[in-house]
Amino acid sequence: MTEQDKKRIGKFLSLVLRHDPAKIELELDENGWANVKELIEKCRKHRYHFSMEDLIEIVETNDKQRYSFNEKRNKIRANQGHSIDIDLGLSAVEPPEYLYHGTATRFLSSIMEQGIVKGSRRHVHLSKDKETAIKVGARHGKPVILTIMSGKMYQDGILFYQSDNGVWLTNYVDVKYILKQI
């Protein structure tokens, strides 16, 4: 499987596992898990051909670690970023003192007026390091990195979760918790 094939299939998996499983008539359970055999078969019907070995390679080599298998590798799900109603079963955890949010400069004025909102997603995504936040921000244009006072948010009673791939999740970041721009 070429890198181009992996990228193309990975994007399609992201679509069906995070946003639109109905596109291929795929059923996700309440925790976002899909049956692997069913996923492979239904993707084939939509001209996305890959084997179980290919899927394992896509999951293991994805730079953002977007997907996870269960222990038996007979189920798969996206780790975060869903716009559909699922429960990832994450427990609230205390975040580090600072987290980072990568965005494009064109969104900065809106963020500084209304805070960081989750939009169509289930959570706001935050990174533990600036390098990851820069990559996220660069996907949307010229990046700007915001330092978030996540420790203060937590002290103020705001819940945080950490997905299986290390992304920090919360419902909203008020402007008063945005410390600075990098």
TrEMBL record:
It is an enzyme of class 2 (transferase). It comes from the Bacteria. The lineage of its organism: Bacteria, Pseudomonadati, Bacteroidota, Bacteroidia, Bacteroidales. Its EC number is 2.7.1.-. GO terms for molecular function: NAD+ poly-ADP-ribosyltransferase activity; tRNA 2'-phosphotransferase activity. Removes the 2'-phosphate from RNA via an intermediate in which the phosphate is ADP-ribosylated by NAD followed by a presumed transesterification to release the RNA and generate ADP-ribose 1''-2''-cyclic phosphate (APPR>P). May function as an ADP-ribosylase. Keywords: NAD, Transferase. Signal peptide: none annotated. Gene3D superfamilies: 3.20.170.30, RNA 2'-phosphotransferase, Tpt1/KptA family, N-terminal domain (1.10.10.970). This is Probable RNA 2'-phosphotransferase. It comes from Dysgonomonas gadei ATCC BAA-286. Pfam families: PTS_2-RNA. SUPFAM superfamilies: ADP-ribosylation.
